[in-house]
Design a protein that fits this description.
With 220 residues, this protein is mainly beta. Helices cover 13% and strands 39% of the residues. The chain has four helices and twelve strands; from the N terminus they run E-E-E-E-E-H-E-E-E-E-E-E-H-E-H-H. The chain has a six-stranded antiparallel beta barrel with strand order 1-2-5-4-3-6. It has a six-stranded antiparallel β-barrel with strand order 7-8-11-10-9-12. It is globular, with a radius of gyration of 19 Å. The mean pLDDT is 91.
Length: 220
Protein backbone atom coordinates (compact mmCIF):
# COMPACT_ATOMS: atom_id res chain seq x y z
CA UNK A 1 0.00 0.00 0.00
CA UNK A 2 1.17 3.52 -0.85
CA UNK A 3 0.03 7.09 -0.20
CA UNK A 4 0.79 8.77 -3.52
CA UNK A 5 3.29 11.13 -1.87
CA UNK A 6 6.45 10.84 -3.97
CA UNK A 7 9.66 10.35 -1.99
CA UNK A 8 12.21 10.73 -4.76
CA UNK A 9 12.74 10.85 -8.51
CA UNK A 10 14.65 7.92 -9.95
CA UNK A 11 16.38 7.29 -13.25
CA UNK A 12 16.27 4.13 -15.31
CA UNK A 13 19.88 2.95 -15.47
CA UNK A 14 19.49 -0.30 -17.35
CA UNK A 15 16.83 -2.52 -18.87
CA UNK A 16 17.64 -6.22 -19.19
CA UNK A 17 15.56 -8.28 -21.61
CA UNK A 18 14.82 -11.67 -20.08
CA UNK A 19 12.74 -14.04 -22.20
CA UNK A 20 10.12 -11.44 -23.04
CA UNK A 21 10.02 -9.91 -19.58
CA UNK A 22 12.45 -7.25 -18.40
CA UNK A 23 14.49 -6.54 -15.31
CA UNK A 24 14.37 -2.82 -14.64
CA UNK A 25 17.32 -1.17 -12.83
CA UNK A 26 16.48 2.18 -11.23
CA UNK A 27 18.92 4.51 -9.51
CA UNK A 28 18.01 7.13 -6.92
CA UNK A 29 20.49 8.56 -4.39
CA UNK A 30 17.60 10.33 -2.60
CA UNK A 31 15.27 7.39 -2.01
CA UNK A 32 17.35 5.76 0.72
CA UNK A 33 17.93 2.02 0.37
CA UNK A 34 19.13 1.32 3.93
CA UNK A 35 15.79 -0.19 4.98
CA UNK A 36 14.97 -1.99 1.72
CA UNK A 37 14.91 -5.78 1.71
CA UNK A 38 14.35 -8.51 -0.89
CA UNK A 39 10.64 -8.67 -1.75
CA UNK A 40 9.85 -5.10 -0.68
CA UNK A 41 7.53 -3.03 -2.86
CA UNK A 42 8.48 0.24 -4.52
CA UNK A 43 5.95 2.18 -6.60
CA UNK A 44 7.70 3.14 -9.83
CA UNK A 45 5.67 5.85 -11.59
CA UNK A 46 2.62 4.37 -9.92
CA UNK A 47 3.37 0.71 -10.65
CA UNK A 48 3.99 -1.54 -7.64
CA UNK A 49 7.21 -3.45 -8.30
CA UNK A 50 8.97 -6.06 -6.16
CA UNK A 51 12.64 -5.53 -5.31
CA UNK A 52 14.83 -8.48 -6.39
CA UNK A 53 18.23 -6.75 -6.24
CA UNK A 54 19.45 -3.54 -4.63
CA UNK A 55 22.48 -1.50 -3.68
CA UNK A 56 23.32 1.73 -1.89
CA UNK A 57 21.49 3.92 -4.41
CA UNK A 58 19.63 1.57 -6.74
CA UNK A 59 17.20 -1.33 -7.01
CA UNK A 60 16.11 -3.80 -9.66
CA UNK A 61 12.68 -5.32 -10.24
CA UNK A 62 11.26 -7.79 -12.73
CA UNK A 63 8.43 -6.44 -14.89
CA UNK A 64 6.05 -8.97 -16.44
CA UNK A 65 4.68 -8.90 -19.97
CA UNK A 66 1.25 -7.95 -18.63
CA UNK A 67 2.63 -4.97 -16.73
CA UNK A 68 4.69 -3.87 -19.73
CA UNK A 69 1.58 -3.97 -21.90
CA UNK A 70 -0.83 -2.25 -19.50
CA UNK A 71 1.38 0.57 -18.19
CA UNK A 72 3.91 3.05 -19.51
CA UNK A 73 6.84 0.96 -18.20
CA UNK A 74 7.02 -0.83 -21.54
CA UNK A 75 8.06 2.41 -23.26
CA UNK A 76 10.81 3.37 -20.79
CA UNK A 77 14.41 3.65 -21.96
CA UNK A 78 17.69 4.15 -20.12
CA UNK A 79 17.80 7.68 -18.74
CA UNK A 80 14.03 8.01 -18.27
CA UNK A 81 12.91 9.61 -15.02
CA UNK A 82 10.34 7.93 -12.78
CA UNK A 83 8.47 8.81 -9.59
CA UNK A 84 9.35 6.63 -6.59
CA UNK A 85 7.64 5.75 -3.32
CA UNK A 86 8.42 2.93 -0.92
CA UNK A 87 5.50 1.04 0.58
CA UNK A 88 3.86 2.74 3.55
CA UNK A 89 4.75 1.43 7.00
CA UNK A 90 2.11 1.04 9.72
CA UNK A 91 1.82 4.19 11.79
CA UNK A 92 2.96 6.59 9.07
CA UNK A 93 0.91 9.62 8.04
CA UNK A 94 -1.44 9.02 5.13
CA UNK A 95 -0.66 12.30 3.40
CA UNK A 96 -2.30 11.46 0.07
CA UNK A 97 -4.91 8.72 -0.38
CA UNK A 98 -4.92 4.92 -0.41
CA UNK A 99 -2.94 3.78 -3.46
CA UNK A 100 -2.41 0.13 -4.39
CA UNK A 101 0.10 0.53 -7.20
CA UNK A 102 -2.19 -1.46 -9.51
CA UNK A 103 -2.60 0.67 -12.62
CA UNK A 104 -6.12 0.83 -14.10
CA UNK A 105 -5.18 2.35 -17.43
CA UNK A 106 -2.93 4.71 -19.36
CA UNK A 107 -3.99 8.31 -19.90
CA UNK A 108 -2.57 11.11 -22.02
CA UNK A 109 -1.66 14.70 -21.24
CA UNK A 110 -3.88 16.87 -23.46
CA UNK A 111 -2.71 20.35 -22.49
CA UNK A 112 -1.04 22.42 -19.80
CA UNK A 113 -1.40 26.10 -19.02
CA UNK A 114 -0.15 28.51 -16.32
CA UNK A 115 -2.62 29.16 -13.50
CA UNK A 116 -1.07 31.67 -11.10
CA UNK A 117 2.09 30.00 -9.76
CA UNK A 118 0.60 26.59 -10.56
CA UNK A 119 0.13 24.72 -13.82
CA UNK A 120 -3.23 23.32 -14.86
CA UNK A 121 -2.95 19.98 -16.66
CA UNK A 122 -5.74 18.44 -18.72
CA UNK A 123 -5.58 14.65 -18.94
CA UNK A 124 -7.56 12.24 -21.12
CA UNK A 125 -8.43 8.95 -19.44
CA UNK A 126 -9.58 5.76 -21.18
CA UNK A 127 -13.35 5.78 -21.66
CA UNK A 128 -13.76 2.80 -19.32
CA UNK A 129 -12.28 4.76 -16.41
CA UNK A 130 -14.29 7.95 -16.86
CA UNK A 131 -17.08 6.86 -14.50
CA UNK A 132 -14.63 6.52 -11.60
CA UNK A 133 -13.25 10.08 -11.89
CA UNK A 134 -15.17 12.71 -9.92
CA UNK A 135 -14.80 16.44 -9.33
CA UNK A 136 -12.79 16.93 -6.10
CA UNK A 137 -12.19 13.19 -5.93
CA UNK A 138 -8.77 11.53 -5.76
CA UNK A 139 -6.75 10.06 -8.59
CA UNK A 140 -3.20 8.73 -8.85
CA UNK A 141 -1.16 9.86 -11.87
CA UNK A 142 2.24 8.18 -12.29
CA UNK A 143 2.14 7.43 -8.56
CA UNK A 144 1.21 10.97 -7.48
CA UNK A 145 -1.89 11.43 -5.31
CA UNK A 146 -3.88 14.32 -6.77
CA UNK A 147 -7.25 16.05 -6.46
CA UNK A 148 -9.42 16.26 -9.57
CA UNK A 149 -10.24 19.93 -10.19
CA UNK A 150 -12.61 19.48 -13.10
CA UNK A 151 -14.20 16.75 -15.21
CA UNK A 152 -15.39 16.90 -18.82
CA UNK A 153 -16.38 13.49 -20.14
CA UNK A 154 -13.26 11.31 -20.13
CA UNK A 155 -10.99 14.32 -19.60
CA UNK A 156 -10.11 15.80 -16.23
CA UNK A 157 -8.04 18.70 -14.90
CA UNK A 158 -5.33 18.86 -12.26
CA UNK A 159 -3.79 21.88 -10.58
CA UNK A 160 -0.08 21.17 -10.01
CA UNK A 161 1.55 23.44 -7.44
CA UNK A 162 5.27 24.34 -7.71
CA UNK A 163 6.45 21.86 -5.06
CA UNK A 164 4.68 18.96 -6.82
CA UNK A 165 6.17 19.97 -10.17
CA UNK A 166 9.69 20.11 -8.71
CA UNK A 167 9.52 16.92 -6.59
CA UNK A 168 7.96 14.70 -9.28
CA UNK A 169 8.31 14.17 -13.02
CA UNK A 170 5.29 16.37 -13.76
CA UNK A 171 7.73 19.01 -14.92
CA UNK A 172 8.72 16.67 -17.78
CA UNK A 173 5.20 16.30 -19.16
CA UNK A 174 4.13 17.74 -22.49
CA UNK A 175 0.96 17.28 -24.57
CA UNK A 176 0.98 13.66 -25.74
CA UNK A 177 2.88 12.30 -22.71
CA UNK A 178 1.36 8.99 -21.58
CA UNK A 179 0.79 8.51 -17.84
CA UNK A 180 -0.27 5.66 -15.57
CA UNK A 181 -3.66 6.14 -13.92
CA UNK A 182 -5.07 4.51 -10.82
CA UNK A 183 -8.60 5.48 -9.81
CA UNK A 184 -9.81 5.69 -6.23
CA UNK A 185 -10.09 2.14 -4.86
CA UNK A 186 -13.25 3.12 -2.95
CA UNK A 187 -15.01 3.95 -6.23
CA UNK A 188 -14.15 0.54 -7.66
CA UNK A 189 -15.47 -1.36 -4.64
CA UNK A 190 -18.56 0.85 -4.41
CA UNK A 191 -19.50 -0.08 -7.97
CA UNK A 192 -19.18 -3.79 -7.20
CA UNK A 193 -21.27 -3.44 -4.03
CA UNK A 194 -24.02 -1.58 -5.88
CA UNK A 195 -24.17 -4.35 -8.48
CA UNK A 196 -25.08 -6.81 -5.73
CA UNK A 197 -25.73 -10.34 -7.01
CA UNK A 198 -25.24 -9.14 -10.60
CA UNK A 199 -21.52 -8.76 -9.87
CA UNK A 200 -21.22 -12.57 -9.79
CA UNK A 201 -22.66 -12.97 -13.27
CA UNK A 202 -20.42 -12.89 -16.38
CA UNK A 203 -20.23 -9.85 -18.66
CA UNK A 204 -21.71 -7.44 -16.14
CA UNK A 205 -21.67 -3.99 -17.75
CA UNK A 206 -21.32 -2.04 -14.53
CA UNK A 207 -23.63 0.66 -13.22
CA UNK A 208 -25.69 2.02 -16.13
CA UNK A 209 -28.89 4.10 -16.42
CA UNK A 210 -30.76 0.90 -17.33
CA UNK A 211 -29.36 -0.92 -14.29
CA UNK A 212 -30.50 1.87 -11.97
CA UNK A 213 -33.99 1.88 -13.50
CA UNK A 214 -34.37 -1.91 -13.13
CA UNK A 215 -33.43 -1.66 -9.47
CA UNK A 216 -35.85 1.09 -8.53
CA UNK A 217 -33.62 4.17 -8.78
CA UNK A 218 -34.83 7.30 -10.53
CA UNK A 219 -32.11 7.88 -13.14
CA UNK A 220 -33.88 10.85 -14.76
Amino acid sequence: MFTGIIQAIGEVRRIERRGGDVRLHVGSPRLGMHDVRHGDSIATSGVCLTVVEWGADWYAADVSLETLGLTTLGSLAAGARVNLEKAMAAGERLGGHIVSGHVDGVGEIVSLAPDGRSIRYRVRAPQALARYIAHKGSICVDGVSLTVNGVDGAEFELNIIPVTASETIFGDYRPGTRVNLEVDVIARYLERLLLGDAAARPATGGITREFLHRNGFDAS
